[in-house]
Amino acid sequence: MNTIALVGNPNSGKTTLFNALTGSNQRVGNWPGVTVEKKEGSIKFKDKQYTIIDLPGAYSLGSFSEDEVVARDFILKGNPDVVINVVDATNIERNLYLTIQLLEMGAKVVVALNMIDEAKAKKIEIDINTLSQKLGVPIVPTIASKRKGIEELVSKAIELMEKDVDYKAHISYGESIDKEIENIKKVLSSFDLDYPADWIAVKVLEGDPYVLSKLEKDYNLSKSTLLKDLAEKEEDLELEVIDKRYEYINNITREAVKLPDEHIETLSDKIDKVITHKFLALPIFGLIMFIVFQLTFAIGEDFLGGYIGGLIEILGSGIENILISFNAPDWLISFFTEGIVGGIGTVLEFVPLIVVLYMLMGILEDSGYMARAAYIMDNIMRALGLHGKSFISMIIGFGCNVPGVMSTRTLENKKDRMISILINPFMSCGARIQIYLVFISAFFPDSGGLVLFSLYFLGILVALIMAKIFSKTLFKGESSYFIMELPPYRMPTIRNVLRNMWDNVSEFLVRAGTVIFFVVSILWVLAMLPVGVEAYSQESILGKIGTLIAPIFVPAGYGTWQAAVGLFSGIAAKEAVVAILGMVYAGVEEGSALVNAIQSAFTPLSAVSFMVMTLLYTPCAATLGAIKKETGSLKWTAFSALYSFAIAWLVSVLVYQVGSAIGLG
Amino acid sequence: MLKEVLKVIKDSKYISKANIAKELNTTEDVIEQVFSELNRMGYIKEDKTINCNMKCDGCSFSSLCNKVPINTIIITEKGKKLLGKSL
C-alpha cells in the first residue's frame, strides 16, 4: 500500500487535516524506540487504499528533538511515497523553512496551504502560482477545519506519487559553501549511504550531531576529514547555511506573498517615543509611581479603610466572650485577644491598601509599562557603570526581597551579582508598607501618597549610591552588556490584574497567619515574663531587651524600648513590626489605639526617621537566608545585615538631626 | 537574516521583535524563530528573568517570582566574534 506522510509546523492544522483525511480510520501507537506518538490512518481514493502517517509537528528537521529525528528519518529512509507539507497560510515565511528542508532531502512534496481563509481575513495576499513555481512543488489551498480543498490535495498527492520527477530545491549556499558541498559529496560517493549524499553534505556543514556520529560510526568519517576549504570557518558554517535558507525563503516570499502594510507606526511605537524619551522618561516614571501611591491612599483608605478594623474588633470580642464562657484563664484570654487577634489584626487592617497598591502595580505590569521602567532605569544604571539588569531584580524586590535576591542568579559575572544582592534589601518590600501606613495614618494622613513615594524613591536612591560605591571599591571590574526586549503595550486584563493582586495579597495573608503568628507568640511570651510583672511593661523580658537596644536609637529620635523592640522583631519578619508595636504601645485591640499611641510616642520628624530606618535596616531572616544561599558565604550575609543597619542608622540620624537643626522637630 | 538580526540587536538600545521584523521586511514569527536559532547556536543568550533551579511547587515565593515579564539578550563572545568578521 502506498504511503502519504503529513508534515508541518505545530499549529499549522496538520492534525485537523489528518482527521479530515482519515476520519475514524486511525490507529495510535509509538514510533519504535522513542516515546513520540505515531498516528496512522488510511483513505480510499479512486478505489485504491493509501496509508496516511501523521508525523510529529516540527519547525525544522534538525536533530534537536526526538520529534524532528523521527520525522526526518521517516522521510529520508524513503518510507513515504509523497509528503504533504501542511503550511499555515497566515504564517507562511516561518512555515516555509520546513518546506525547504523537505526539498533539500529530495522528498516529493505537495504543499497544503492551510487556513487560507484566515490569511485572506488578515489581508495576506498569496500568489499561489508564483509560490508554486518558485518552490517547484504543487500547492493546494485548503481549509482543513471545513474540509475544503481536501479532495484536490489528495488528487495532487497521488498524481505526484506516480510521477518520476526530481523536486529537489536548488539552493545556493554561496560559492564557497557550494564548493565544499561538492567536495564532501565526492568523498561520500565511494560509500553506500542510507541518506542522499547532498543532504548529508549540508548536514555535515551544519554540524548535525546525529549525522556526524553516524558517519563516524558506520564509515569512520569525521568532520575534520570531510571539511577542506572551510575547515577554518567551521564555527560559523551552521549559521551560514541557515542564513542562506532564510534568504532563499525571503526571496520567494518577496515575490509571492504580500503582507498587509504594517509599516505605519504602531501605537506602541508612538507611546514609546514619549515614555522612553531621553529627557521625559524619568519624570514620567516618577509621575506614574506618584499617581499609583496617591490612588492607593485615595481608594484603599478613603473607600475601603475601616471595614477590616471593625471586623477584627468583632472577632476579638467574639473570641474573648467564648473563652470567658469556657472559664479560660486570664493569660489564655490575653494571648488570643491581645497577642494573636491584636497582633495579626493590626497587620490585617492594612490589607485594603495593599490590595489597591498591588492592583495598580498589576495594571502597570500587565500593560507592558514595567518593562519600560526597567529600560529607563537600565540607562541610569549603565551611566553609573552598573549592570542594568540589577534594576530588574530591584523591581522584583518591591514585592519581596527573597525572590529579588534569587533573581540575581541570571547575572553572569560575580561583580554584578554581588552588588545586586547587597542592594536588593533597600527595595521597599510589601511587608514594610504597613509600617509606613501606621505612621502615615498617625502623622501625615493628607499626604500619604507623597510620603510613600518619597520612601520608595529614597530606597532606590540609596541602592544606586551603594551600588556605585561597591563597584568602585569592593567589586571592581566591567559589567556585562545586555539588551532588553520591550514587549508591545497591551490592554491589561482583569483576570491578570486580579491574579497578580491575589498572588501578592495571599502571600501576605499566609505570612500573616504563619510567620507573624510565630513571632508574635514568642514575643507575647517574652512580654508576659517573668511571672508577676505587668504585661508589655519595661520590666518584662521584652522590655529589657528593648531597653538594652534603645540607646542606639536616641540620636535618631526614637530611643524608646518599644520602638527598639519593634525594630528588633522586624529582623525576624518585617510584618511583625506593626504587630509588636501594637502589643507594646497599646496592647491593642484595634488599629486606632495603635495610631493614637504612636502619636503620643513619636513626633512627625521622629516618625519619618523611624520609617527611614525600617526602609533601610537589616533585611528579614528569610532574605538573609536567601543572601546566604546565593552568595554561599556567611561572611557576606553578615556583611549585608550589618552594613544595611549602619546605613539605615546613619540616614535615620541624619534625617532627625538635620530636621531638628532646621526646626522641623 | 541571522547575521542581520544579530547586527540589529547590537545596534539597538532595546529590542522590539516587531520593529526588527519591520526593519528586515519579514514577520515577527520569523524573527522569533531567528532569535531561537541564534540562541541555540550560542550567538546570543536569551534570558527570561528568574532561572533558579528550585521547583516552583512548594516554594513559598513562587507566586512572587517572574512578576515582571522582561526578557534580556546578551550577545555572547561567539556572537561578537561573528559581528567582528562581518563588519
CATH superfamily of chain B: Winged helix-like DNA-binding domain superfamily/Winged helix DNA-binding domain
SSE arrangement of chain B, N to C: HEHHEEH
Indicate the mean pLDDT of chain B.
76
User: What does the largest sheet of chain A look like?
Assistant: 7 strands, mixed
Describe the fold and architecture.
- The complex is a heterodimer of chains A (665) and B (87).
- The model of chain A has no long low-confidence stretch (mean pLDDT 82).
- Chain A is elongated, with a radius of gyration of 35 Å.
- Chain A contains 31 helices and ten strands.
- With 665 residues, chain A is of the alpha/beta class.
- With 87 residues, chain B is of the alpha+beta class.
- Chain B has a single domain (2-86), classed as Winged helix-like DNA-binding domain superfamily/Winged helix DNA-binding domain (Arc Repressor Mutant, subunit A).
- In chain B, strands 2-3 form a two-stranded antiparallel sheet.
- Classes of the chains: A alpha/beta (665), B alpha+beta (87).
- At the A-B interface, helix 3, helix 11, helix 17, helix 18 and helix 19 of A face helix 1, strand 1, helix 2, helix 3 and strand 3 of B.
- Strand 10 (483-485) of chain A pairs parallel with strand 1 of chain B.
